[in-house]
Design goal:
about 400 residues; alpha/beta; Rossmann fold; 5-stranded parallel sheet; disordered N terminus
Length: about 400
């Protein structure tokens, strides 16, 4: 059966997990949106769902064996790789994730996904222990750094009897993420965006430093989303354990003064500035040349001096045609403190959140924020940081239009 070239095409990879049957519903949800779906299965996946099921639902032959004689005279894995507008693997086992991270191509699915130039999305599903294993987490970071979109698993009761992270995300969420990726707007194409992310470190001696709990995840999510939407992205990053998003220019900093120097160097060339890094407000007045030793029970007094205000400095230098967004991570009187920063630092918008709220603190993948401008305040519900990133960029686009029409 020939493909309708007027349709978008998803190549759906199905791996050998108990959640394999849910891929049937993902296929149907995509078809309801007029999307053509081709299925590639691993041998293990065939033990859970018959290829005939997917063939019947999709109306296309299912690819399983790399060396099986194809229905048409073409190199099948290359043909499928080229046909895809999006390559979605759901469920994605720890095994296929590891193969993708290492570039292993030893079956039809791993060979095809390695050959594709289409955007790739995976929806992992596995036992909690496998999900939490450092090897799996490192493999996921590697894939994310290459631009692979990850639909993180849900937490719940698993087929093995365990309870925890690793359950395949709801099929409607996976299908919607795939649809969003297929029809992603390129509304930032031609724009230059600078994002700062992560903490700073202020040295005390050659061994110790003062820092904060910022993981950089929110800033990295914004950089990733801006790149996906077509922007030319420069990411200024503090010391974090994240892989930089694929295709962005990455510039490292350590101290608050480093951050300010780098930001001033790049800011003037940007259309949009997003200061989501967490610079230290103070630094040690004197940095010891050698490691500070205990003083036999005596108190140690560290004298601190104020660091320059990165956001305020950028705000003073901001051009009228630039959009400047700041962040306010607070523990009390959130709206009051955020409004003060909005005015004082000459921001167009500030993203405020209470870091003590469940799901909105440090080093988590979700956030609860309020987008505040001089005109209004929009509170967002709990959502992933990737979703928050897109909502921030949506609001920035509104502000750009307002400036253009003013």
């Amino acid at each position: 059966m020939s493909a309708d070239t007027s349709k978008k095409c998803v190549v759906l990879g199905v791996t050998g997990g108990i959640a394999a049957y849910k891929a049937c519903e993902i296929l149907r949800l995509l078809q309801k949106q007029g999307i053509d779906v081709y299925v590639v299965m691993t041998r293990n996946a065939c033990s859970f769902v018959s290829p005939l099921t997917f063939e019947t639902l999709s109306g296309h032959p299912v690819a399983v064996d790399t060396f099986e004689r194809p229905a048409t005279w073409e190199v099948e894995h290359i043909a499928l790789a080229k046909r895809a507008d999006l390559f979605l693997i759901a469920p994605a086992t720890a095994n296929i994730i590891a193969k993708m991270a290492c570039g292993i191509a030893d079956d039809m699915l791993s060979t095809t996904v390695l050959a594709t130039r289409a955007p790739v999305m995976i929806a992992p599903a596995m036992n909690t222990g496998m999900w939490d294993n450092p090897a799996t987490q490192q493999n996921l970071r590697t894939l994310e750094s290459r631009g692979v979109q990850i639909v993180a698993p849900a937490t719940g009761y698993l087929a093995c009897g365990d309870s925890g992270a690793g359950k395949l995300e709801d099929v409607s969420v996976i299908a919607q993420r795939a649809i969003d990726a297929l029809f992603a707007v390129q509304d930032l194409k031609g724009l230059r965006v600078m994002v700062t992310a992560g903490p700073t470190r202020e040295p005390i001696d050659p061994v110790r430093y003062i820092s904060n709990r910022s993981s950089g995840k929110m800033g990295y999510a914004i950089a990733r989303a801006a790149k996906r939407r077509g922007a030319d992205v420069t990411l200024l990053t503090g010391p974090v354990s994240l892989q930089p998003p694929a295709g962005v220019t990455t510039v490292s900093f350590t101290t608050t003064r480093d951050l300010l120097e780098r930001a001033l160097e790049y800011a003037d060339a940007q259309d949009i500035l997003i200061q989501s890094a967490a610079p230290a407000d103070y630094r040690a007045k004197t940095i010891a040349d050698q490691k500070i030793k205990k003083q036999g029970g005596e108190d140690f007094v560290l004298e601190m001096i104020e660091n320059p205000d990165v956001a305020a400095t950028l705000g003073k230098a901001k051009r009228a045609d630039q959009i400047f967004v700041g962040f306010a991570a607070e523990t009390q009187h959130v709206a009051e403190h955020a409004k003060g920063k909005l005015e004082k630092k000459n921001l167009d918008m500030i993203v405020a959140n209470d870091v003590t709220a469940a799901g909105a603190g440090f080093d988590v993948d979700t956030n609860i924020v309020t987008l505040m401008t001089r005109e209004d305040s929009r509170q967002l519900p709990l959502m992933s940081k990737d979703e928050v990133a897109d909502r921030i960029l949506d609001r920035i686009q509104e502000l750009r239009m307002q400036k253009t029409n003013a």
